[in-house]
């Protein structure tokens, strides 16, 4: 008879899981390319350390000052800061999170209680939680230094506040996970997120127009905030400092009730996961009776001017673009931003008083468009996945693949440029002919010039990105650096050429210079295609390994 | 003298200090259904990747249909079809779109690509969900689609890396029928599989690779005769495989060491 594994304690399981996380991180750094990521991580760690320690000092000082100076009512503000950071940061940082699935722990022999506790422990290991716990500890020390008698109350309130926050954060996280498990809701969520970011621009004009109405409304709403957890925690500490123990008990009880309610909801969520909640979006098979032959596709070829292979790649890129809603939104954003900038600088925005001349704004906005849209070209195979093998198995030279992908990017850029042009012409009017032509030639120079570098970057530093996912997605670090460096170089050259027109007093000089530079860039691009094709052949193992994981 | 479809000479691939494929000399005649066997990590997939252009050899040469792969990669690729390890599908296309993509990449015209794609989808019983993305296909459906993509241009050599892995009996039957018909019409099929019964049933010739070296090659009858010492032996392929691969005595783990499991 085989031995049966004996049950182990929850703490041991937590330790084992922590070890697993560490090994995943350590083994991921064995590859040479990952060491650049390690450098980034170290830098990020140093900056994060400064951020956390700096705010620890601020929280200590704040708690000490509010209690020693008798400004008890302000103590709640400190709890509000921690609460908002703890709950909102993980949502904003979702894209940078580890791709490790906590739910995969379910394959091991855990009971529901152990699963719940490990889940909470996971929540405490997040950056936002670690930072918040440090700040809570600093507040506790600050409060104790100012009024030692408050320490027991502070410890109680801080413990309840910690439990409440970690539970709520895990609850929100698990609901988000459920929402984001389906492609359509994921994309909808992303769209709402982008819209929310864009709408931040509207706060200022809204306040200018409706500030008078919003003020009294806000004053009516604020009292209700007093029953939310951070305000309750603040009132409990204020009561302890004033020796009003009834309010201390009431505030602590309120926090406990919140923590209990969130715990019940989180328990139910984890119980659903524990029972094997199905989050997959794979459709059930269609019964045989419903079978129908695939409809024949349209046989007319709108891309007949291209070679069949290049046209096929363009068509495939178009399909991928239309199905990857995240990429699609990133394409929609630049014209939206052009509209906002245009409105703002044209003097039509409520916040704008001094309209900017189209002579300056037009090249600037077009440069912004190129800056945003060229980024993905530096890792253009990111979404191919295992399909990259198809390109290497097919009887063609890799230049056809580059041509197809680059043509698709140029088409997108062309459409966006025309769209932005129309908007700017409507909002600002067009610039003078020399500036217009110089800007158009500069776009050709900057875009085509970057394509060769972007193609080189794509085969040399590839990184797989999951289609339609936000969480756990990280761009190739070297590709981002290269894109950044190339944009600086091309932007710098363009700026020098533009300003040299002013210095020399020759309004046509930038247009002439950019036309020459654009011709050189186009020539250089076509000259580079064969060597890029050879490079792709040499680097195929790197590409296949990186994208087929 | 039969036409040679695949010939390798001293084919070698090293990964750092590890020699995954070590001086392999393969010879596969045109029209053969050829099984390429070996234990895990023996070098099967590395060999098939080199033969299909997914991996460059460190040393040695490969001729396919009389063309040197190193000097005529595009001409060679035009005449071969591949179902690679992991299938290599573009998962955000539908099955029909993917077949049309592959057909066009191999230079078929639009009308022919469309016609063949429809016929293949119908034959593989994949035509019922024209709008479903490949990412949402089951594993077996993906395998069938990968095979359809590998044959859409009518290859003269077909390379299949574990084509029956994860495929149910019904789908396997469809694949076998297609492969059988293709060999009848002169296509050379080079197949790797861990399922020795399938290889025994389908293949006429077999090669066995072990620790990167080719340790046996010939028709099934020849290999059986080599092992049993008599012509017309009833020795199974599994017995042949185990006797060749297990010759050095290190291959059979001793169950006594797992006494706690008994």
Summarize the entry for a quick read.
The complex is a heterodimer of chains A (549) and B (262). By secondary structure, chain A is mainly α.
Written account of the structure:
The complex is a heterodimer of chains A (549) and B (262). Chain A is an all-alpha fold and 549 residues long. Chain A has two domains: 10-26 and 35-213 and 220-274, no CATH class; 308-547, no CATH class. Chain A has helices at 10-28, 32-68, 75-92, 112-124, 127-146, 151-180, 183-199, 203-225, 229-241, 245-274, 308-323, 325-345, 358-374, 388-393, 398-427, 433-460, 477-504, 509-538, 540-547. In chain B, helix 3 (95-105) runs parallel beside helix 5. Chain B is built from nine helices and eleven strands. The longest helix of chain B is centred in the last third of the chain and has 16 residues, at 169-184. In chain B, 35% of the residues lie in helices and 24% in strands. Chain B has a six-stranded mixed sheet, sandwiched between helices. In chain B, strands 1, 2, 3, 5 and 6 form a five-stranded antiparallel sheet that branches. The N and C termini of chain B lie far apart (55 Å). Chain B has helices at residues 44-51, 73-78, 95-105, 110-123, 139-151, 169-184, 196-202, 220-228, 237-245, and strands at 4-15, 18-24, 27-29, 33-37, 59-64, 67-68, 80-83, 157-161, 188-192, 205-210, 213-219. With 262 residues, chain B is an alpha/beta fold. Chains A and B meet through helix 11, helix 14 and helix 19 of A and helix 2, helix 3 and helix 4 of B.
